[in-house]
Structures are given as structure tokens and as C-alpha cells.
Amino acid sequence: MTKKSIAKRIVKTTVVLLLILALAGTAFFALFREKIDRWEYPIQYSEYVTYYADKYDIDPLMLYAFIRTESNFDPMADSDAGARGLMQITEVTFDWIKSKIAPTENLTFEDLYDPETNIRFGSYFVSYCLLRYQDDLPTSAAAYHSGLGTVDKLLAQAEYSDDGKTLDHYPYPQMRLYVKKITSSYQRYQEIYTES
Question: Among the CATH numbers 2.40.30.30, 1.10.530.10, 3.40.50.720, 3.40.50.2000, which is that of 46-194?
Fold first, then answer.
């Protein structure tokens, strides 16, 4: 063999090895990426989420987006506003929901630290917001975050709503950020879990 043919063989072998490494790296990255995605957007408390999503006719992935955004799946989460649990429900909202779905049950605000109770109440409220605002997730998320009264007042103003039914603009930075978090989280959950 001549030096030239040896050099060609080395180049071919190197190219083949690099191609194999690139393909293996791509496969490894795809597997690793899926694990990272599922770690960043977990599915937890699925028995409760599935049950209450079905009961209130909500996509369970949407409920996961709310739980992730509200508490990052911490059942003992507390907010500065006094909201509790996985779906961060305030005492006023708890009392209102209780009057709708559990008026005779011996539940207290403290029970919102229980994952099932919290998901039950939060799912009802998400469902209520979706029904009230024609299944528009951004407007419903704004109501979940800032209250029905706040959203209703904004809907009455042409600068925030063209049709008086859904919000086109969000005047408060926290509301705008919250709506963006919910909608983008829901989109990521759909991308990760509906392709599998």
C-alpha cells in the first residue's frame, strides 16, 4: 500500500467514525432531551388530575400547566396573598367554591394542603372560568389569577377587549406574565405528552 492509499483509508475511516459518533450523539441528545422535558414539565398526582379533569371536562394537560405554574407541584406551597396548595387557592375563593361543590362537607381552608382536595377545588374553578369565558384559556387564566370581577371589568372596556367576551390586552404586568406562563406551559405539555 502506498502512503496515498493509507491516507485515503484513514480519511474514510475517520469520516465513518465521525458519522457514527454524530448519529449516536443525536440519538443520545433526543433521549436526554425527552428526560429533561419531562423533568421540567412533570406529571404528578395523576390519579386526581385525571379524575377531576374528566369530571369537569378539562384537558388534564391544562390542569398540569396550572399546577406547575401555581406551585411547581408543592402541595404545601403558600403565597404572599395567602393562597394555598398545589393550585394556590385563597380562602375567599375556597369558601366560594365550597358553597358550589361541597356545601355540606366538613372542609376547612386547611384542607387545601391535601392534594386531592386542592385539585378538586382548583379543577372546578378552572372549569368555571373556561365556561364563563367561552373556553378561552388566556382570559380564563387571567380570571383564575386576578379574579372574575377584575376580568369582567376589563372585558367591559374596549381598550382591553374587542368583543366584550375575551381579553385582547392585559393591563397589569403580573396578569400578563401569568397568562403567558399558563399558555406556554400548556403548549409545552401538549408538545411533550401528546407526541409520545
Answer: 1.10.530.10
